[in-house]
Amino acid sequence: MISFIKKQLKKIENKSLRRVVLSILLAGSAVVLAVVTIYSTALVLGPPPMSKGGNTIYYSEEEKVIGEEHGPESRYWVSLDEMSPMLIKAALTTEDKRFYSHHGLDVKRILSAAWKDLQALSKVQGASTITQQLARNLYLSHEKTWTRKLKEAFYAIRLEMFYDKKEILEGYLNTIYYGHGTYGVEAASRYFFDKSAKQLDLAEAALLTGIPKGPSYYSPYRHLDNAKNRQEQILASLEQSGLISEDEQYLAARQTIQLTEHANEAENKTAPYFLDTVLAELQNILDMDAEAIRSGGYQVYTTLNLEQQQQMEETVTKSISNSSELQVGAVAQNPKNGAVKAMVGGRNYTVSQYNRVTQAKRMPGSSFKPFLYYAALENGYTPVTSLLSKPTSFELEDGTVYQPSNYNGYYANEPITLAQALALSDNIYAVKTNLFLGPKELVKTAKKFGIEEDFTAVPSLALGTGAVTVNEMAAAYGMLANGGKSVEPFTIKKVTDSHGKVLYERKKQDSSPVLDPVSTFILTDLMTGMFDESLNGYMRVTGASIADELTRSYAGKSGTTKTDNWMVGFSPDLVTSVWTGFDDNKPVENTNDLQAAKSIWAGFMEKAHANIPFHAFPVPDGVVGAYVDPVSGELATPYCDQHRLMYFAEGTEPTSYCSLHHDEAEENQEQPPEDGDEEQDSGWKRWFKWLSRS
User: Fold this and answer.
1) Domain, as residue range, for 387
2) Is 152 a catalytic residue?
């Protein structure tokens, strides 16, 4: 080929003409080589990414939108089918009439624009196609340099090579800037008209289409006249193109535009403390910072139950006086898997974003005792193991003396059973048990329940002197509710990108028990005792004040320190942990404030269970039940004033009948009636009456 060209050039005798022809051939060859190089490079590099993120949207477990976040920019990504057809027509007519006939670069338009610029000796007309604008929006800055223009052209070629026209148009309409921090037609539609892009009418579509030419100059909020003039130009162009009628143009141009009013106050979010927790969890899952996530266009499917969230918020509001500065942390979880169903991290999110469920560590008081008594059951205790409850001074190994006290200074001054000690929250019984087992055993047991705090192994730990979070307590109690399986609290079920591609999906966790099922069930049953007044002793059971509010069986434990009040409890379906107190750790003294944690817990649990079928705690193999006198700890008889069905590991149940109340009955028994008296109360009749009461 080269030799042929040389021969042809030699035939041209005029040297000047020969040079011109040679120059043309070289230039043409260079152009061809450049085009081949450009397209080859584009082919090798492959398709450039189309999406540039968007607003991250959060969904409840029912897949209803509960919130959305974005960084400095608000973005959504919607398909062409989710946009108003008039908006699409207006964009094509205004920005790129030859969009479907060019291949990224409109040569005819470029030459026309260049000629007009030359005539005016300045740049008066743009020539960028929709494809070029998309390339600039996605990959480049808006600086006016030849380097940027060349890069823009190259990206436009790549886009046209790998994406069809529909995809390119969709990408453009989802990335164009409309001012006020909004990118794309969906974000703009919501911002300006509080509706989706699909719902825009002709007048609104034309108004939006005009804004990108100068987002500040044509903003209807800042310069309504400019926006209206631009709108009328676009409507006229649509009419000239035959896309709308003259009547449609006339009516749309004179239609009153209803713009959305934007309040200055902070947006009222749904479950804001929960959403903050979701964002923190999402950062770990995606290994990204918060700002990148907010503007990443992710779809986040959470565990939140909207109805239960509303019930929790309403109960908190009802239970704490508006005049009180008392704070609250409350969380409800599914004990089967740890899914967080509702969360209130404080009384007013706009005032304080500090989450008292996940961030605050407070002393749990007696709500820590179940962990101690699980260890006790594992080390030979039964529900009727008795210890003396009276003021006691404990001399420790280092020679110091520890003197715990009971609430308000009340003591039985006689032996009480484990069942009663837990229901009455006897501190002497707890400390004796902790010293008997060794405080290190309680630290080890707490870790078994998933509480990883570095507790000091001291006698007072039995009374909840180590700090924990509300979330940790809920998860730990959840292990009792589910029969002993380990659970980890979580808020996210699935994450996808803006196009629905699954980036993360929570896997089903290992369901093997960590706790002994028999001890777990026995402890759970003992924890129902805080609401059972048959266990009343030297004082009423600690749940007596809310027992009348409860319509089904729950297990739980309250906790009280000078500065903290707790109520943690569960059914087989839901576990709820509530803390109340002051952020500055001042003592809680008001009577209503002291009762608030229990009131919140009881009110919420009843509302949350209203539509949940009743489920009993399943009884594992190796457990036997027996009616026991709660005072003596022996099998109950008809002479016992109170009795309770208690559960034992098989072979550890009591075998002797209560002699305490039988002896009292013998001493006070009246003279029996004469033989044959119809009122004689025979033994079998007494047993029948007792069983009837049972």
Assistant:
1) 365-608
2) no
